Amino acid sequence: MDxxxxxxxxxxxxxxxxxxxxxxxxxxxxxxxxxxHTVLEFFARAPLAATEDMWxxxxxxxxxxxxxxxxxxxxxxxxxxxxxxxxxxxxxxxxLSRFGTMPLRAVxxxxxxxxxxxxxxxxxxxxxxxxxxxxxxxxxxxxxxxFSETGRQVYFHADGRMKxxxxxxxxxxxxxxxxxxxxxxxxxxxxxxxxxxxxxDMAARGGLITAGDLAAYRVREKxxxxxxxxxxxxxxxxxxxxxxxxxxxxxxxxxxxxxSLPHNGPEHLxxxxxxxxxxxxxxxxHMGDPDFVDVPLDRLLSAGYAAEIAARIKAGExxxxxxxxxxxxxxxxxxxxxxxxxxxxNAVSLTHTLGIPSGVITPGxxxxxxxxxxxxxxxxxxxxxxxxxxxRGSAMAPTLVFEGEHPAIVLSAPGGTYIxxxxxxxxxxxxxxxxxxxxxxxxxxxxxxxxxxxxANRIPQGVARALEGMGYPVARSxxxxxFGAPHGxxxxxxxxxxxxxxxxxxxxxxxx
Length: 512
Fold this sequence. Notes:
This protein is of the alpha+beta class. The chain is about 35% helix and about 15% strand.
């Protein structure tokens, strides 16, 4: 846990639009010797002032992957109205105090040192900043970087040019905020001086977050949701996280002898696509915050339900995924992850994010806030609709796969609604196709979160044509490593640990 939280704080410095202290997340941890296996959930929550119908009349559509709900004025995507109550500081500090061994100041020291030193702009970071969202309804990240005075100072040169790979970001305000948290803990952030600065900024500029929202924030502890695949027990995070959807998907796919099929051949991908579509239909219909909506998880994860869906796929039935318009979404690259396993068999899988960055940086604090309100459905009466203090639904699925009583595989992935398909394909690549972890996370992927099958650019043209010949719309990504970015660790039978990080990002496997 010391390593996981040290890495999480550092990631907020070096990837400040992917995660950070203005964001939210969830983790799963297993400490076998201590008899601990639990989930800590620290999602952003809709402010107390939010209402179910606050944006109903402005709804204009949804991205094809279901990741973003679009408004005619984009107020849920940029600016103060986009922000939900952050959870990461509460989550990091509670996890460390309960399950770590080191003091907060020591665990935060690397992040603080990096913030003082500065951060080099890397190619993937710049790619994300420069994405042109013209046509998909979202605000360009470059405009979010310009939104605040701090953003203009940190991310741009004096002449207004965006910083490029090799340039250095210097953000002394962030370094000082981290030092204040190291000194005062979560209390400083949620009820102390930092909280007062955040609330004053929100009140002055139309934000909904109040002192009451911050003071009332609490981490939720839950039991993992369980399933199985190819004889292994699998634990992931329950709703509103994506672990239930992941296990539903795996339960359906277990009815197929995938290992007998050519990997990423037409029939393999047809089966994958149909299973993903059924998973998505159920996610859209049911997967919300269980404090606010009834999530029929027992039925969705039951053996009978998986068998029923598998039979429909075997019979050639083509599922239909309703979408309110289908703008051609760019690959959603927000979010990052930490996977840790140690020699004693302790394991942590952590996913954290800004959701979609809001662009807002309170003067003097240095960090960017989440834009989690874009993850709520503006239409009332749905599982993902807005409600005060409600957690938005999330695809985050920090996952552990067990051999006996000990974690043998630790998996997590960023990528919005692509997370569950990415983790499922990485896991199948290991268990069905015998790949190493590095091979498994790097193999070409698909997603089918609408009626269209989206394929990575390394899926052969002949395979795509075969799918089109079956009647499927197929869209080819320009990215070689598209659709999420799974990262994982695996304990081998001889006790060695192998790791893999998706090549499209800046992740790596590191032995200490």
